[in-house]
Amino acid sequence: MNERATSPGDLDGLIAVVTGAAQGLGLGIAEQLAREGATAIIADLQRDKGRTEAARLQADGLHVQAAHLDITHSAGVATFFDEVIGEHGRLDVLVNNAGVGQIVAPVVELSDEEWDRVLNPTLTGAFYCCRAAGAIMEKQESGCIVNIASINGQNPAALVAAYNVAKAGIISLTRTLAVELAAYGVRVNAVSPGPVYTEFNRQNMAQRCQSLNITEDEMIERIRAAIPLGRWGEPVDIAQAVAFLCSPQASWITGEVLRVSGGMEGVSAAPPKRAQNP
Ligand SMILES: NC(=O)c1ccc[n+]([C@@H]2O[C@H](COP(=O)([O-])OP(=O)(O)OC[C@H]3O[C@@H](n4cnc5c(N)ncnc54)[C@H](O)[C@@H]3O)[C@@H](O)[C@H]2O)c1
User: Fold this and answer.
1) Cys staple from 209: which of 5, 178, 219, 243, with CB 3.0 to 4.6 Å?
2) Ligand 1 mean position, distance from CA 200 (Å)
C-alpha cells in the first residue's frame, strides 16, 4: 500500500471539480486535492454515494462538496458549470475522470449500442466538460485541466476497442486543448493510469478471467507479475500525479501525457482463435 503524501497549501483555496468522484480513482483524486487545500467538488451520476463520501471527508476537516452530474448531457454539463461559477465565482481545476469500461468483445462482434455506451461518457462527456470549463478558464486567464486517459489509449489492448479509442481520443483532446488554451495561461494535461483494482477493473477482470478460463486470483497475479514495479496501483498513486499536475510545481507543463502505471506500457496479449460460426 502506498502512503498518501500531502503538501498542505499547494492547492490552497482552489476550486476543483472532479467528475466520477463518488468512488474509485475519482474519489482518491478529490481527497488528495482537498488534502492539499482545494475545495473539491465530487460531480457524479451517483448522487447518494457522492454525498456520503463528501460527508465522510468533511468530517475529516476537508472542503469537499457533492453535486449530481451526468456528463453525457450536454445542456446539463453547461448548467452545472454555470452553477459552480454562481456559487464560487471561479473554477481553477477540472479533472475529467468519469468513464466506463467496455464489455469484452472483439471488434467484429462489437455492437453499435456498446460502442455508444462507452464512447458517450468516456470521450464525448469529457469533451462537454472540457468545453464548458475551458471557456470559463479562458475568460479567467487561469486554470488547469487534467484528463484521465489510460495506458490503453497509448497501447491498445485486444477486446476493448471502444474503450481504447475513447482513451486515445482523450489524449488527442488534451493535446489539442493544451495548444488552444496556452495563450490564456491555462494548462491541460493527461494522466494515463495502469491497473488499479477499482469497481471498474473488478468487472473487467471478471470477464477476462472467464474468457481465459482462469480464476480471478490467477488473473490478479498475472497482471501483478506483468507490472515492472511488481504491484497493482492504488487510487492514491494516480491522485498524487494529478495533484502534482495541478500544482505550481507543474506551471511549465502542458500538453503532457503522464503514465502512472508502475512501468507497465500496455496489455499486449493476442487472444486465441475463436470457434467459427457454422
Ligand atoms: N481502474 C483502473 O485500473 C483504470 C486504469 C486506467 C484508466 N482508468 C480510468 O480512470 C477513470 C476512473 O476509473 P475507476 O476505476 O475509478 O472507475 P469506477 O467505475 O470505479 O468509477 C467511475 C465513476 O464514474 C461515474 N460515472 C460514470 N458515468 C458517469 C456519467 N455519465 N456522469 C458522471 N459520472 C459518471 C460512476 O458513477 C463512478 O462513480 C475512468 O475514466 C477509467 O477509464 C481506470
Assistant:
1) 219
2) 6
